[in-house]
Design a protein that fits this description.
Layout (H helix, E strand, L loop, with lengths): L9 H6 L4 H13 L1 H8 L13 E4 L6 E4 L4 E2 L1 H5 L1 H7 L3 E6 L6 E5 H17 L7 E5 L4 H13 L2 E4 L6 H11 L3 E5 L2 E3 L2 E3 L1 H12 L4 E5 L13 E3 H5 L11 E2 L3 E7 L7 E6 L1 H14 L7 E4 L6 H13 L3 E5 L10 H9 L3 E4 L1 H8 L4 H4 L8 E5 L5 H11 L6 E4 L33 E4 L10 E7 L9 E2 L3 H9 L6 E9 L5 E6 L3 E4 L2 E4 H9 L4 E11 L3 E10 L7 H14 L8 E4 L13 H8 L16 H8 L6
Parallel strand pairs: 4-17, 6-7, 6-8, 7-14, 8-11, 11-12, 16-17, 16-18, 18-19, 19-20, 29-30
Antiparallel strand pairs: 1-2, 3-13, 4-5, 9-10, 14-15, 15-23, 21-22, 22-24, 24-25, 26-27, 28-29
Bound molecules: 5'-O-[(S)-butoxy(hydroxy)phosphoryl]adenosine (WT7).
Length: 646
């Protein structure tokens, strides 16, 4: 691994909120007296009724309970909107850049306030009440932010489902959340192609049952079937709604949103985040990690369907009164230089994207980047997966002209906000390292037995204490929450990631150590892809593992055993790929499928994934002990028929 170090420049240490001395002082204070520290930080948002209790958290597996600011009363939309009207009503809140470069829009804080109030009134008119779950299945249009904030305003709980998910995946999420209301669009638009969102929502509603209302935002104007009584066009309802709507009084621990994410087993789980602690943490990290100052133009390229979009397009920036850019399109449309062109067009100062995007844009060479100015850029960010030093260096040198620090931010859907990251005025940078913990975060490295390791070491990453943005439970299944995160290493939150800590105390995340694959920064459970494959009538068994992929970070490698009577073929391979796309969504498409007459199993029938992983990774010399296999002969066949990477 690269051990190159980039020191903090004096320009940065003098202009940033936090320099190294301040970091050390604040970090020590946050650990020494979390109640005093977070009690003070909680004041960065407005409370209708101030809290008197700051922290009440337990990681004890017999009694996992996480509460922050528990007797405080506030409202997230109030904090993102009303609070700013007096001082920045005319300031741009959202810059929207369409898929088509000729389409864009600027929405001020006052306009945003009015749009959100109207949206909230539409939801109310459709019967939505405090505590109800609303599923949002929208493209990257301003209405996605309006809908989220409208839910927050009236105390409804949103569940945003990424527009790339299939009707089946959407149906599962609607059902699990018990949503009776779905907000969608006629069609989405990405890279010049239309996405049939309303048709997908219809199919999902048929499958899930219980959907009483579908609110359809017009994006393309394409004609879509509307079921009378159930379906309404948003614009037709909104035009008659008042631009005022009272913000509901919410307890700090009332749910704000559910976001589904893949785990190592079973169906995706509904990660539940609540109101007060989440907002405090999203706002604070957004301010300090990106060193956000008034007037800065900030762009996070994520989709609102992922947690990055929740915390760092919508809630963190808007709570801070920032100008946040929302991009509907993709990095390579209409040209491979689109990101850099948008940066110049809107004078973006802070740019936050994913390693997979950087790696794919790197392939097009420097020219598309260099023909843009990017003079407005001051800070670059990375999120979603480990960034390889080569991509880091390219991002730094080519995109940032050797001038912009890179914050490599490690966190998870579950953590609500960034936990391990450099602060640009405080932390020297090592390409590939997420560096140091944010305030209040207590990372520990443990070995397989849970022994806490000291100094420079490598093992599994756990967190020894709570932070305000932490998820509170798995929606509807608290036991699964406890089992997934607190049972492996009793008393600690287990991240599922491996990591190395170097002699400077810097953290290097090495990737998932469970059966989760990180494909282009998106989490995919191997079990989910397997169950999609075995649902195909010609498949009898499937085992899915990750393997290193040049662009995606990890690719999906599927070993498939066919039912007797069916023969492997290229056609069948394509059929299976399309099948998985249809069952889950394009992000779950297997990159490589190997037809295998048998899978390596123990005598008790358990598939030995370790061996499958090694073969997919091309590490045959290193298969480990295969003597416990029921039929060691299958291994030779698997090696002989290994699919070539890329
Ligand atoms: C997993 C969480 C957090 C928002 C996007 C992904 C990996 C995330 C980094 C990073 C190394 C990273 C981890 C983590 N990950 N950021 N900077 N360096 N790995 O959220 O879908 O919940 O996935 O993404 O493996 O556990 P997510």
């Amino acid at each position: 691994m690269s051990e190159k170090v980039y020191d903090v420049t004096t320009e940065w240490s003098s202009r940033a909120y936090i320099d190294d001395a301040k970091y050390r002082e604040m970090y020590a204070a946050s650990l020494k007296d979390p109640v005093a520290f977070w009690g003070e930080e909680g004041k960065r948002i407005h409370w209708f009724t101030p809290y008197t209790k700051v922290k009440n958290t337990s990681f004890d597996p017999h009694n996992v309970s996480i509460k922050w600011y528990e007797d405080g009363v506030t409202n997230v939309a109030y904090n993102c909107l009303d609070r700013h009207l007096a001082t920045r009503g005319d300031q741009v809140a959202i810059i929207w850049e369409g898929d088509n470069p000729d389409e864009d829009k600027k929405i001020t804080y006052r306009e945003l306030y009015e749009e959100v109030c109207r949206f909230a009134n539409v939801l109310k008119a459709r019967g939505v009440k405090k505590g109800d779950r609303v599923t949002i299945y929208l493209p990257m249009i301003p209405e996605a932010a309006y809908a989220m904030l409208a839910c927050a305003r009236i105390g409804a709980v949103h569940s945003v489902v990424f527009g790339g998910f299939s009707p089946d995946s959407l149906a599962g999420r609607i059902e699990d959340a018990g949503s009776t209301v779905v907000v969608t669009a006629d069609e989405g638009l990405r890279g010049g192609r239309k996405v049939p969102l309303k048709l997908n929502a219809d199919a999902a509603a048929d499958r899930a049952g219980g959907v009483e209302s579908i609110i359809v935002v017009r994006r393309t104007g394409g004609s879509v079937p509307m079921r009378s009584g159930r379906d309404v066009f948003y614009d037709e309802m909104a035009k008659n709604m008042p631009a005022e709507c009272a913000a509901a009084e919410m307890n700090a621990e009332d749910p704000l949103f559910i976001l589904y994410t893949s785990g190592s087993t079973g169906k995706p789980k509904g990660v539940l985040h609540t109101t007060g602690g989440y907002l405090v943490y999203a706002a604070m990290t957004h301010q300090y990690v990106f060193d956000y100052h008034d007037g800065d133009i900030y762009w996070c390229t994520a989709d609102v369907g992922w947690v990055t979009g929740h915390s760092y397009i919508v809630y963190g920036p808007l709570a801070n009164g920032a100008t946040t850019l929302m991009f509907e399109g993709v990095p390579n449309y209409p040209t491979i230089g689109r990101f850099w062109e948008v940066i110049d067009k809107h004078k973006v100062n802070i740019f936050y994207t994913a390693p997979t995007a950087i790696r794919s844009l790197m392939q097009a060479g420097e020219e598309p980047v260099k023909k843009t100015s990017r003079a407005s850029l001051r800070l670059l960010g990375s999120v979603g997966e480990p960034i390889n030093p080569e991509a880091w260096e390219w991002y730094h040198r080519v995109v940032g002209d050797d001038r912009c620090p890179i914050v490599d931010t490690w966190w998870q859907t579950e953590t609500g906000g960034i936990l391990i990251t450099p602060l640009p005025g405080a932390t020297k940078l090592k390409p590939g390292s997420a560096t140091r913990p944010f305030f209040g975060v207590v990372p520990e490295v443990v070995d397989a037995n849970g022994l806490v390791l000291d100094g420079a070491c490598e093992g599994n990453l756990v967190l020894a204490d709570s932070w305000p943005g932490q998820m509170r439970t798995v929606y509807g299944d608290h036991d699964r929450f406890v089992q997934t995160y607190f049972a492996t290493y009793a008393g600690k939150y287990f991240t599922g990631d491996g990591c190395r800590r170097d002699a400077d105390g810097f953290y290097w995340i090495t990737g998932r150590v469970d059966d989760v694959i990180n494909v282009s920064g998106h989490r995919m459970g191997t079990a989910e892809v397997e169950s999609a494959l075995v649902a195909h009538p010609k498949v009898s068994e499937a085992a899915v593992v990750g393997y290193p992929h040049d662009i995606k970070g990890q690719g999906i490698y599927a070993y498939v055993t066919l039912m007797s009577g069916f023969e492997p073929s290229e056609e069948l391979r394509k059929e299976l790929v399309n099948w998985v796309r249809k069952e889950i969504g394009p992000i779950a498409s297997p990159d490589l499928i190997q037809f295998a007459p048998g899978l390596p199993k123990t005598r008790s029938g358990k598939i030995m994934r370790r061996i499958l992983r090694k073969i997919a990774e091309d590490e045959f010399g290193n298969l480990g002990d295969t003597s416990t296999l029921a039929d060691p002969g299958v291994v030779d066949d698997l090696i002989g028929n290994r699919q070539n990477r890329r």
